[in-house]
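Lab notebook page, bench 4
Experiment: in silico fold of construct C2
Operator: M.H.
Input chain length: 306 residues
Purpose: comparison with the prior construct
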Amino acid sequence: MWVRVLGSAAGGGFPQWNCNCPNCRGARDGSLPCQPRTQSSIAVSADYRHWFLFNASPDIQRQIEAFPPLWPQAGVRHTPLQAVLLTDAELDHTVGLLSLREGRSLRIYATEWVYTAVSEWNPILRTLRAYCEVAWQPVRLQEILSLRGPDEVDFGLACQAFSTAGNKTVAFAADRTPHPDATVGYRITDTRTGRALAYVPGLQELNAIVWRQLQGCACVLFDGTCWYDDELARLGIGGKTSRAMGHLPVGGADGSLEQLAALDGARKVYIHINNTNPLLIENSPQRRAVEARGIEIAIDAMELEV
């Protein structure tokens, strides 16, 4: 299968429009070696012609235009996009759905919790339905699904959702009790080759359930949001820790780096990287530490063959 990293940054992108942290300032004035990034999303295909989108960021229009295989291929109205799979209900993963409203129909794979969140508590899908048909494909934890487009064609990809067991709630539904279905990762398998990809852009703790799903994968795209748990506080931006925002920090004795480095046999890539993370700076000690352990940092337009 093929994977296109459409966007590799966390919410807000890099540089973030209103941020003057050292990273964003250095990105703007060219004083730091780094590359701009749009907000996190990937596209996956088993044949390089029919694509499944994992999360729809606010930058989706730009991301599609930057990748010719997602351009219309036939007729006046056409898209190679078959469906969108949501890992959660965060705005940086769902607002892009509104930019797809010109389509005849849109199939959305999501857990019931996420579907309810974007239909009722923050009515993105209710708005979208005023413009196009929305077909919801329920996602149940651990259930293997054959990914299909609007015409029910099987394109050779199977997908299994697993809970990341975080306790974060989205801001627009802060009064809702944390739920196992609220944030999921996906294990995507090419049914012809048996090779698997794990996509986990949001993870609070690398627990046993998640670890089992990573085993045997040929490639892992993993949450790299913050390096430090107190990253925002260090920069005077806010008091929330990385974990409080639903993201296991990369660095530190109990961070993801040491754990992920122990995963054998997989190509490992950090994605969903916050604008404050020193991993964005190509000559930073943190970047060197990650690369020394054989782990890559995702950039926009990165393509992986799994």
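Observations: The chain has nine helices and 14 strands. The mean pLDDT is 96.
Next step: discuss at group meeting.
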